[in-house]
Amino acid sequence: MVNIKQVAAHAGVSFKTVSRVVNKDPTVKKINQEKVLKAIEELGYRPNRAASITRRKQSGVFGLIADELLKTPFTFDIIRGAQDIAWEQNKELMVLNVNEKRFSAEKAIEHLFEHRVEGIIYASMYHRVLDIPDELLKIPAVLVNCSAIKENLACVIPDEVQAAETITNSLIEKGYKRIAFLNLNENIAAAKGRKQGVINAFQQNNLPMQDLYIESVIIEDKNGEKSIAREATRRVINTFNPDAILCGQDFMAVEVYFIMQAMGYSVKQDIGIGSFDDWENTPQLLQPMLTTMALPHYKMGQWAMNYLLAGRKDIVKHKEQFKLIERESF
Amino acid sequence: MVNIKQVAAHAGVSFKTVSRVVNKDPTVKKINQEKVLKAIEELGYRPNRAASITRRKQSGVFGLIADELLKTPFTFDIIRGAQDIAWEQNKELMVLNVNEKRFSAEKAIEHLFEHRVEGIIYASMYHRVLDIPDELLKIPAVLVNCSAIKENLACVIPDEVQAAETITNSLIEKGYKRIAFLNLNENIAAAKGRKQGVINAFQQNNLPMQDLYIESVIIEDKNGEKSIAREATRRVINTFNPDAILCGQDFMAVEVYFIMQAMGYSVKQDIGIGSFDDWENTPQLLQPMLTTMALPHYKMGQWAMNYLLAGRKDIVKHKEQFKLIERESF
DNA sequence: AATAAAAAAGACAACGTTGTTTAGTTGTGT
DNA sequence: ACACAACTAAACAACGTTGTCTTTTTTATT
């Protein structure tokens, strides 16, 4: 590829002048600037970033490590959020997938160090508490969708409590009084926060606790996680007789819709349905379309990148708000 | 960060010897190698990639441009496939999301040129024919999940014809004789290939064409694409009376399941259902679980990276095979 | 023990940039 | 016309590596 000296020769100036033009140094006479720009255009010159990084001692590159335990469309949202911000500021984002079997997080961090990244975003695919490699502490870093056991790193996580409060309040506001919450696996952080949020909303509205039923219907067995949502829905409708069901995730809502249809109940009229995620086009696929709390992955990615770009080092636990997507299911 | 000369001083050898150890040059005596390794460990030295790239004149970095028209979990599969291969060979992958509003593909290519990438993978989020920026021709490049209008670039695309043939044959083998295929928007490449595949299977099995019904139930109107699957399913069952329905995508199958349940038909016993995608955990969510043709995104990502790493320049149109995931819906 | 051959390690330049210093050019006020 | 400042541009070093060439050390052979 053509280099700065060739451009200089072509433009009839010193190569340092070309460098100045490329770096928008204002001390270049207009006439020379034009000559250089023309030469760059004609030769298709693109500055060599590696050389620039070597000399400048700063890379303008940030790393994003995505763990791959679960592959979800949300991964991509976090990446998009971070990258959109990075790009606005002319920074690069280097994305590395981590995967226990093939590539460890430690290895990924080493790679990123070699590239002299100026900061690292570590993104987990689901909201949880993580044991962070110590290496990460040697460099500005943020966690996305997870927090550190040792609480020694800043992180951004979804505000599960707020999400559950918001949708429960919305349900109550619409007149639903007897709510069954089919929660996720109770061992994960998301499930705990949401349970709290639903309870908060009941208390804020002075509703009796006997009108609230909460059960975890994603349970763990030897093969990993497993949904008992169908069985639970049938049972809960028959025994608890709710006027609304809040589902721990949109996929669960699909199952609930099926069971309700089979039992001859109609969504909204007989039982209102709410959910969490706003997973792809699942909510629009259902009829009536599902009202759900959208996970703030894109915004979390943005927040993380902004945190790094601001040069922050404070250890905060930032909570990003879900958004209520009102459709037709309650 | 610590540099090669500091390591050399600490180890008591010349800095060139450190370079040799780092690059696994076998002409270093074991005793010195150990000294250097120890020094590297103690100082936490990581070679500076930018400097190495500058000197070596090759970056070991490849670019992946992902267009963002549609965000799907499959995007990530393509990236994973490419990255897994890249990493095995100690190459880096730089992923850039492209998005008409913010960042054009041209801009992404410029960025990648600055990083002196050794090749570029351009991945489309759905299978289609694209007008490729000429810039891409200046460097080794492959297209994933799309092909070039001008046919001037190698590409890897899903083998839609094979997929449709395979699942239709499987349906026929299991005794289904009268098949309705609810296809995607007929304007997209995938729909065309699949239609052909279904027809091929009927011909190969000498089945009468009047036992095959094909309709595109994803249609375009002023607001973009829209599904008429529910209406069509009801109509097709009533008028064509199929013993199997083949759906253009898993999401469509969800709708078909709902309609069938509402009409009092049971999946598999009354009407067998097959589909395309293997979208996340949608197929497992349905009961009975959905048999579907899994899109080969991961493999396409791998193929693309292997193409570049092999230094190939031949303009091929490689087709990657779908995989039949047999579950319980027919 | 002497010598040649082979192996290992060092010296130094080069990669394509940018930072700093120095030199040259232009303009202004007397 | 002259001094001086203010611009502008050139020259040169430096960044942290690796390639090439040279020197030193080790090993093998007699």
Task: Tell me the layout of helices and strands.
2 copies of one chain form a homodimer.
Chain A: H1 4-11, H2 15-22, H3 30-43, H4 49-56, E1 61-67, H5 73-88, E2 92-98, H6 105-114, E3 120-130, E4 141-148, E5 154-158, H7 160-173, E6 179-183, H8 189-204, E7 212-216, E8 218-221, E9 224-227, H9 229-239, E10 244-247, H10 250-263, E11 272-277, H11 282-285, E12 291-294, H12 297-309, E13 317-320, E14 323-325
Parallel strand pairs in A: 1-2, 1-3, 3-4, 4-5, 5-13, 6-7, 6-10, 10-11, 11-12
Antiparallel strand pairs in A: 8-9, 12-14
Helix pairs in contact in A: 1-2, 1-3, 5-12, 7-8, 9-10
The first copy, chain A, binds a DNA duplex (30 and 30 nucleotides) through helix 2 and helix 4.
Describe what this molecule looks like in 3D.
Two copies of one chain form a homodimer. Chain A is α/β, with parallel strands linked by helices and 330 residues long. Chain A folds into three domains: 4-47, 434 Repressor (Amino-terminal Domain) (Orthogonal Bundle), CATH 1.10.260.40; 61-158 and 297-321, Rossmann fold (3-Layer(aba) Sandwich), CATH 3.40.50; 160-294, 3-Layer(aba) Sandwich (Rossmann fold), CATH 3.40.50. Helices cover 41% and strands 23% of the residues of chain A. The first copy, chain A, contains twelve helices and 14 strands. The first copy, chain A, has helices spanning 4-11, 15-22, 30-43, 49-56, 73-88, 105-114, 160-173, 189-204, 229-239, 250-263, 282-285, 297-309, and strands at residues 61-67, 92-98, 120-130, 141-148, 154-158, 179-183, 212-216, 218-221, 224-227, 244-247, 272-277, 291-294, 317-320, 323-325. The first copy, chain A, has a six-stranded parallel sheet with strand order 2-1-3-4-5-13, with helices on both faces. The first copy, chain A, has a six-stranded mixed sheet with strand order 7-6-10-11-12-14, with helices on both faces. In chain A, helix 1 crosses helix 2 and helix 1 (4-11) crosses helix 3 (30-43). The N and C termini of chain A lie far apart (61 Å). The interface between A and B is large, with 52 and 52 residues. The structure holds a DNA duplex (30 and 30 nucleotides).
